[in-house]
Amino acid sequence: MPSRLTRPQFLTACGLPVVALLAVAVFAPLPFSVAQPGLTADVLGENQGAEVITIKGAPTHEASGQLRMTTIEATGPDARVRLGDVVDSWFDTDRAVMPRDAVYPSGDDVSEIEQYNQEQMKESQDAATAAALDYLRLDGQDIDVDLRLEDVGGPSAGLLFSLGIVDKLGTGDLTGGEVIAGTGTITTGGKVGAVGGVPLKTQAARRDGATVFLVPKAECSDARAELPKGLRLIPVTTLKGAVDSLTALESGKGGVPSC
Predict the structure, then answer these.
(1) Is residue 85 part of a domain?
(2) What radius of gyration, in Å, describes the C-alpha atoms of the chain?
């Protein structure tokens, strides 16, 4: 006659597979990347010894403040992110866990990822230039704009590139001597798009001295979630709206939207 398991024995027998599964969950790599605040760069100044924005064919003026584009830094596509890393990030406002596909949509090959990010950056720079010149009603065939930013890829600096061109070629001073930061994609028609990683970018901005952060309006709630003290959010949907908001902020005349 088969022996019968007592209740403690039964629980132990059932518990062994559970323990094994938990061990796998703790130590197995997960399809995530861990991100943290990255570098910021003043598009009105220099990056690694070279001007970020160089313009030929039209007069420009020096800026009194800064327009800082923001980034995040993420673990590489082949990094082994485990459950412990995910749990730790929940209690650390300086880190966030993001789906790996959201950070590296082009796959796991490092060289392919770098190429993809550079292509995205180039497309963003071209769109930013077109949007800025269109806003200023200037002929792109007569003006040569060169954008140079080393070790940064992707499209999320588009808005700040456009604002930098407008500031250099326009008649006003968008910064008012302040450190303005932000993020957002840009289309040739001047529409601003969402980018992701905004809470980490606001931390990078405040760390580097920004007091104002331009955020795509669709990401206002994300930006408010862990907003650093002393950083003012201004939501934007278009290049014109961003310029109008900064002009009103600098002059003290007119309303400035808020998240």
Answers:
(1) no
(2) 23
Residue 183 · residue 198 · CB < 8 Å: yes
* pLDDT, one tens digit for every residue, the chain (259 residues): 444 444 444 444 444 444 443 343 444 445 677 788 999 999 999 988 999 999 999 999 988 999 999 998 877 666 666 666 656 655 566 777 766 666 666 566 778 777 888 898 999 999 999 999 999 999 988 999 999 998 788 889 999 999 999 999 998 899 999 999 999 999 999 999 999 899 999 999 999 999 999 999 999 999 998 899 999 999 999 999 999 999 999 999 888 999 9
| Residue 201 DSSP symbol | H
Q: Kind of pairing, strands 179-182 and 212-216? A: parallel
The domain that holds 197 is classified in CATH as: 3.30.230.10
84 domain residue, yes or no? no
Q: Model's pTM, two decimal places?
A: 0.81
Helix 83-90 to helix 7-27 angle (10° resolution) is 80
Span between the terminal Cα atoms of the chain, in Å? 73
Domain count, the chain: 1
Q: Is residue 207 part of a domain?
A: yes
Query: DSSP strand E in the chain: where?
Result: 32-42, 46-47, 50-51, 53-56, 66-74, 96-99, 144-147, 179-182, 185-186, 192-193, 212-216, 232-236
Does residue 2 sit within a domain? no
3-state secondary structure at position 68: strand
Q: Which two tokens stand for residue 210?
A: 């920004």
Its domain, for residue 139, covers 36-78+109-251
Q: Which residue shows structure tokens 């769109």?
A: 127
